[in-house]
Design goal:
The chain has helices spanning 10-19, 35-42, 74-79, 85-94, 99-118, 151-157, 164-169, 176-184, 192-203, 211-236, 242-251, 253-256, and strands spanning 22-24, 30-32, 49-53, 64-67, 125-128, 146-149. The protein contains 12 helices and 6 strands.
């Protein structure tokens, strides 16, 4: 461990984490240090922090921290993108609702969000049970996935991901469209006790993937599937480069469209 002196603020926490990437646990094993280690080491007493840039695994040297809920956090801002009246009107139009009906449902949704925020007790964090920096399974912040948590649980949970199955099991919408569907169906809101139980389960599970890592994994999986589809199409057309495939298809057009010999697909 470093013998440096650190300030007991966000800057000190950040620098301590950069200088002290590992520690020995109670079993003598070398493990990564985390935010709680840094808080204790530098005497930090401020509000919970979260990674804004870099991370505590492979990019610790690029680490930059911000307050949880900091308005400047681009990932949180994206996740908190508010639902618009237009989204509700478009859904209603496609599903046979009048403009007046869709407007009423949207206004009810806005009222429910305000009521949920007002229900948070002093000292609680109004936590978004689905992670803010994950691009997948993301319906934005709304009264169906927010719940008041203690600072301790909120800090332990810090960007860990529940699974889509866990989210659906307690009634959390995993997409914006599923949220709007629930509003039009007037589906019951999730039980706050169930949301707290799920948040606590996620917070205390050291094996949970972080949102950013899960987003990267799913992005990579999408890219692999795309390459496989493209490769499969190439094989079906005889392989070779794109231009070679185009030339072969065009050469056989007289078999496909004998009445239009000058027609080319590309």
């Amino acid at each position: 461990m470093s013998k440096k002196t650190y300030t007991s603020d966000k800057k000190g926490v950040t620098q301590w984490l950069k200088d002290n990437p590992t520690k020995k646990n109670s079993r003598g094993r070398t493990v990564r240090t985390g935010l709680r280690d840094a808080y204790k080491a530098v005497g930090y007493k401020g509000p919970p922090l979260k990674s804004k840039e870099g991370n505590l695994s492979t990019q610790r040297d690029k680490l930059r921290l911000s307050l949880r809920g900091d308005a400047g956090d681009a990932a949180r801002s994206a996740a908190a993108r508010p639902f618009t009246k237009q989204e509700f009107l478009e859904f209603g139009k496609k599903n046979g609702y009048t403009t007046a009906q869709s407007t009423k449902i949207f206004e009810q949704f806005v009222t429910r969000n305000r009521a949920q925020k007002a229900s948070i007790l002093p000292g609680q964090a109004n936590d978004h049970v689905t992670p803010n920096s994950a691009s997948f399974y993301q319906a934005g912040e709304n009264y169906r996935n927010r719940v008041g948590l203690s600072t301790k649980v909120n800090l332990l949970k810090s960007n860990k991901m529940p699974t889509p199955r866990e989210m659906r099991s307690v009634g959390i919408p995993t997409t914006r469209s599923s949220l709007i569907q629930k509003e039009f169906a007037n589906a019951p809101k999730p039980d706050p006790k169930a949301l707290r139980s799920l948040a606590s389960k996620v917070a205390r599970d050291p094996t949970r993937p972080r949102a950013k890592n899960e987003t990267n994994r799913l992005n990579n999986a999408q890219q692999r599937r795309l390459r496989l589809r493209i490769g499969g199409l190439s094989d079906a057309l005889g392989g070779g480069s794109g231009s070679e495939i185009v030339d072969r298809v065009n050469a056989k057009m007289h078999l496909i469209a004998p009445l239009t010999p000058d027609l080319q697909l590309f």
